[in-house]
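Predict the 3D structure for this chain.
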Amino acid sequence: MSKFLIEVPHGTDKIECLHSVAIFLSSGSHFLTNADWGCLDGEHKAWFVMDATSKGEALQVVPPAYRKDAKISQLNKFRLEDVEELLRHHHV
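Done. Predicted structure below.
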């Protein structure tokens, strides 16, 4: 499994924003009910992290109305040794 960051934007209108939050909270999904929101800082998006086998699997957790605008990024960590190996591989 891989770890994914899912970013889900929604409209800036106050009613639309609250509607989006209500949809996430009433979904029953642990991921959605524990999403982090940027609305109070003017960033009308929700974020959550999950383990999944693919981006497609991660997308299925997003409510259907928000899927087309969702951004899914696979996350990884680097060790210093990884960077050194990559630099050797690229002859830098």
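The radius of gyration is 17 Å.
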